Hints:
Shape: globular
Helix content: over 70%
Number of helices: 17
Distance between the termini: 17 Å
Strand content: under 5%
Radius of gyration: 21 Å
Structural class: mainly alpha
Order of helices and strands: HHHHHHHHHHHHHHHHH
Amino acid sequence: MSEKTLTDVTPKSGRKGDLTQGPIMKKVLLFSFPVFLSSVFSALYNVVDSVTVGRFVGSDALAAVGACFSITMVMVAIYSGFGMGSGILVAQLYGAKSKDITKTINTAYIIAFFVGTGMGIVGQLAAKGLLNLLKTPANIYDNALIYLRITFLGCTGQLFYFMGSGMLRSMGDSKWPMYFGIICAILNIVGDLLLVIVFDMGVAGVAIATIVSQLISAILVIIRTYRSKAYGLNMTRENFRPDFRILKDILKIGVPGAINSLTNSVGLMIIQSYANSFGSDFVACNTVVQKVDSFALLPLMALGQGLTTFSGQNIGAGREDRVREGVKKLGTFMFVFAVLSGVVVFFSAGLLAKAFTTNEAVIGLCIKALRVVAYFYGVMAVQRAVHAMLQGSGAMLPIMIISVFAIVIRVPLSYLLAVKGNNPFGLMWAQGIAITVVSVLSVIYARFGNWRRFVSVRRS
C-alpha cells in the first residue's frame, strides 16, 4: 500500500491544537490532562453505577451488571474501531494541513448513524442468546437482560460521541470533549441517584441514566464540530455528503482496529463465562477488579491518547524524528507512572474493594485478584506507548495480528489456569501473561517492522 496525499495542502501556522511544533512533553501533557479529567469523570460515573447498584439494590444486581461487561466491550470495540479510523485519519490530515478534513468528518458522522442504528437493532434480537452463551447464572439473568437491552438502545448516541470527540482530539482540541464528558458524568450520576434510589428502578435506572447522558453529550459534540471555526473547517449542509474515497481510508484503519477490539472482546466473553462458572461472588469480584483497574490506569490511557494524536499529526507533517523523540520521552514517563500505580493498588486492595461492597467474601476475593493484576501495570505501559505510536501511523493491521495472537494464547491459558486448575485467580495471571506477549511483539515490530507503509497522508 503506497503512501498518498488526499488533496491539496494549504500550509498554515499557529493553528489551534497543532502538536507538530513546540516542546514535546509540555504539549502532550497539556493535551493529555483534559483527556485524563474526562476519563476520570467517565470512570467516576461507571464507579457510581456499580456502587449505587451494589449498595442500594444488592450484590446480585451488581453481578448482573458485571455479567454484561464483556458484551458491552464488544460494543465499545466497534465504537473505538470506527472512532480510531476517523480520528487517526483526521490527525494525519491536520498535521499535513489538508483540506480533506471537512469531507472526512462529514463521512464519519454519516457512518456513525447507520452503524449505530444497525448495532441497536441487532443487539435487541441477540441479547438473550448472548447471555445464554455466557452461561449467566439464573439468579442474575433477568436483571442482566434488562440492563443489556436498554444499553443497546444507546448505540447510535455512543458511536456519535466516540467518533466526534475523537476527531476533535485529533485536531488537538481535548478541552471541549472534556467539558462534554464532565456534563455526561454529572447527568449520569444524578440520573443514577434519582432513578435507582428515588424511583427504585434497579439496574434499569442505571442503564437509562447512562444512555440518556451519553446521547446529550453526543449532541453537544456534533454542535461543537459544526458551529466552531477554530479548526478551519467548512461545515455546511451543501457539503454534508459521504465521500467514498475517504470512507475507504477510514475503513482501512478502522476495520482492523474494530476486529482487534472485537476479537479481544469475544475472548473476554469466553473468559467471562469462565468467571461466571465460579459463582456470583466471583462475578461481583471481577466487576470490582475491572472498575478499579480501569480507574487506576486512566492517566496512562490519557497519555496514550495524547501520544497517538501527537504521532498522527507529526507523521502527517513528515516529522518522524519528532515522533521518535516523543515516544522515548513519554514512554519512559508512562512506565514509571504505571509501576507506581501498581504499587498503590497492591497495598490498598482491601480499601478499594470495600468502596464497592460490604460482602466480606467478595472483598476477600477482590484483594487477591487486584494484587495479581497490579504486577503487570509496567508492562501495560510499554504496550500502550508503542501502540500509540503505531496507531498514529495507521498501522492497525499489525496491531490486530499481534493482539489476536495474544488472545489466542490467553483464552486456553485462562481455561488451564482457572477452570482446569480450579483457581479463579488464574484468569488474572493469564491476562498478565497475554499483556506481556503483546508488549514484546509490539516493541519488536515498532523497531524492525515496516509500519510506515500504513500512513494514509503525509505533507510533502
